[in-house]
């Protein structure tokens, strides 16, 4: 019928063109493919066949950036010993991926860094100090030990740690050092034949000279002299790694200066400074000049200087020919003036008098008279002199009052003010790392391993407690006070002879510990 439309569809509309069919199938394939792959990945991971990148950093995987190592499981350890309480396992794990590590380093790990120290500290201080520095990339340690550190119960534990070499102060060692090159030179001579801090300074320099030889034999690239109350703080690196920090130093640089920060304790009952102290006073080199001098009086709090002790930092030296120490804080070279750089973020954290007992322990190590004149003969820095006098003449109550006034930062409003100004700063990384190491059981595992190789467990722990007491230790190690004793006559003249060189570089005086700048001067000067 004309004017009517047929409702029957056209035959051509019942079939799709080939190109339309191909597009539909491709769309279906693209839709199903991601879903299929997701299901497949889920099945593999559920069955343990997929190495999930996130799971690589789980507590059961013993890897961390810059290190790779395996070790047997660590036994738990419990004891009433104070030493084991400080170093043992707790029940609140943190940083658990440290578990089971021995911190052995691959031979191709670069650069190779070593630390040398002269110490008389016990295990409660040396074990956290060693393993913290292993975490941030130090592979070798040269420990020149005496006192408590040289006692069999402590030294045998230290000797079992991979990468640690223990050197005892014996008569043979002192005789060898008396024939060394720097003993017969003039740059260190002003520190000879003086007690206490001066004697320690000479001893450290002689030990550093030997450590250079050991470092070269061990294939080290960098050497650092550090005390066991100091921790390296490699701020500014992506992985908090001293190894990565030094790897970025240009090849023409011989020495890297690390300005020191000084601990600012907030309690008078600190027992384990590395795990309990987080507030530090920043170095002059890391502060704007107007901020430093504008807050100098508040930061000093009536003490002789901005820092209680030294303020000229520590240094790392690249192992090169003709390297020598230049005192405990710097290195030098017989043939040239070292090319040095000073870092603007990384630092050395110096835990200065963090425990009240540090007052009496330093007093007991020095036989000087507690007079203003005699302490100048024994100590280089003014605060050390004042601390020795108060510890030698005051009662326990008077010492505690003095300690709180001069060392403990109890004024919270002042602390907050100086934190906002940037004079004080909070640094938590060492605290977290060392607490994680302690929780992992590494310290107790090292002690247990030493026990298995030496004494029965109960006997060993008992003797460790005994060695931590204040009684004098008798061992095969002789007193270090023979260094600097005037032997008189020809031997003294021979020890003082001057070696001639083509230049005068060897006559540069050793750098002593220096106080930071004061309001009276813009540059640090040595105390007299």
Give descriptors for this structure.
528 residues, alpha/beta, Spore Coat Polysaccharide Biosynthesis Protein SpsA, Chain A, 7-stranded mixed beta sheet, 5-stranded mixed beta sheet, Glycosyltransferase family 92 protein, transmembrane helix, EC 2.4.1.-, glycosyltransferase
- Which residues form runs of ≥5 with pLDDT under 50? 1-15, 47-85, 88-100, 470-507
CATH class of the domain at 113-296 and 305-353 and 424-439: Alpha Beta
CA radius of gyration: 31 Å
Q: How many individual β-strands?
A: 16
At the fold tier of CATH, the topology name of the domain at 113-296 and 305-353 and 424-439 is Spore Coat Polysaccharide Biosynthesis Protein SpsA, Chain A
Note the gap between the termini.
126 Å
Helical stretch tally = 19
The proportion of residues in beta strands is 5-15%
The description of the largest β-sheet is: 7 strands, mixed
Mean pLDDT: 79
Widest β-sheet, arrangement of strands: 5-4-3-6-11-8-14
The proportion of residues forming helix, as a percent range, comes to: 25-40%
How does the helix and strand content classify structurally? alpha/beta
Shape: globular
Blueprint (SSEs and pairs):
Elements: H1 18-46, E1 63-64, E2 67-68, H2 82-87, E3 113-119, H3 123-135, E4 140-145, H4 152-159, E5 164-168, H5 171-177, H6 197-217, E6 222-225, E7 230-233, H7 242-247, E8 255-258, E9 260-263, H8 273-276, E10 279-281, H9 289-294, H10 296-300, E11 314-318, E12 323-325, E13 331-333, E14 340-342, E15 347-350, H11 357-364, H12 372-378, H13 382-393, H14 396-406, H15 412-421, E16 424-426, H16 429-440, H17 442-453, H18 457-467, H19 489-495
Parallel strand pairs: 3-4, 3-6, 4-5, 8-14, 9-15
Antiparallel strand pairs: 1-2, 6-11, 7-15, 8-11, 9-10, 10-16, 12-13
Helix pairs in contact: 3-16, 11-13, 12-13
């Amino acid at each position: 019928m004309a004017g009517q439309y047929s409702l029957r569809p056209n035959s051509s509309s019942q079939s799709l063109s080939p190109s339309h069919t191909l597009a539909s199938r491709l769309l279906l394939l693209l839709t199903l493919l991601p879903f299929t792959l997701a299901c497949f990945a889920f099945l593999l991971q559920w069955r343990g066949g997929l190495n999930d990148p996130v799971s690589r950093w789980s507590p059961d995987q013993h890897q961390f950036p810059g290190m790779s190592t395996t070790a047997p499981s660590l036994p738990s350890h419990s004891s009433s010993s104070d030493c084991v309480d400080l170093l043992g396992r707790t029940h609140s794990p943190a940083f658990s991926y440290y578990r089971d590590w021995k911190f052995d380093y691959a031979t191709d790990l670069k650069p190779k860094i070593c630390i040398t120290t002269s110490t008389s500290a016990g295990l409660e201080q040396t074990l956290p100090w060693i393993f913290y520095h292993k975490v941030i990339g130090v592979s070798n340690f040269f420990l020149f030990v005496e006192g408590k550190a040289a006692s069999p119960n402590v030294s045998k534990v230290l000797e079992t740690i991979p990468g640690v070499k223990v050197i005892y102060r014996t008569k043979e060692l002192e005789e060898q050092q008396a024939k060394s090159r720097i003993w017969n030179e003039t740059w260190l001579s002003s520190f000879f034949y003086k007690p206490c801090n001066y004697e320690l300074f000479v001893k450290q320099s002689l030990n550093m000279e030997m450590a250079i030889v050991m470092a070269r034999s061990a294939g080290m690239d960098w050497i650092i002299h550090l005390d066991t109350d100091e921790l390296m703080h490699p701020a500014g690196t992506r992985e908090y790694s001293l190894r990565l920090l030094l790897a970025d130093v240009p090849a023409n640089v011989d020495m890297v200066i690390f300005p020191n920060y000084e601990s600012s304790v907030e309690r008078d009952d600190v027992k384990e400074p590395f795990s309990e102290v987080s507030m530090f006073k920043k170095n002059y080199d890391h502060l704007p000049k107007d901020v430093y001098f504008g807050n100098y009086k508040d930061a000093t709090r009536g003490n002789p200087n901005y820092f209680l002790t030294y303020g000229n930092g520590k240094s790392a030296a690249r192992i090169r020919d003709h390297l020598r120490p230049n005192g405990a804080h710097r290195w030098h070279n017989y043939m040239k003036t070292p090319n040095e750089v000073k870092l603007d973020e990384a630092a050395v954290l110096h835990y200065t008098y963090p425990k009240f007992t540090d007052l009496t322990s330093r007093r007991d190590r020095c036989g000087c008279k507690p007079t203003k004149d005699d302490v100048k003969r024994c100590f280089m820095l003014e605060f050390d002199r004042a601390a020795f006098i108060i510890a030698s003449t005051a009662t326990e109550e008077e010492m505690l009052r003095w300690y709180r006034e001069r060392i403990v930062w109890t004024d919270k409003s002042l602390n907050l003010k100086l934190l906002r100004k940037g004079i004080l700063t909070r640094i938590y990384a060492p605290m977290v790392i060392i607490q994680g190491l302690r929780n992992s059981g590494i310290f107790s595992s090292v002690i247990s391993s030493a026990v298995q190789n030496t004494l029965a467990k109960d006997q060993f722990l008992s003797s460790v407690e005994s060695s931590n007491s204040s009684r004098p230790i008798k061992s095969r190690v002789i007193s270090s006070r023979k260094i600097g004793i005037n032997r008189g006559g020809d031997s003294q003249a021979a020890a003082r002879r001057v070696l001639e060189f083509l230049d005068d570089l060897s006559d540069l005086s050793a750098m002593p510990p220096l106080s930071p700048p004061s309001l009276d001067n813009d540059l640090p000067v040595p105390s007299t």
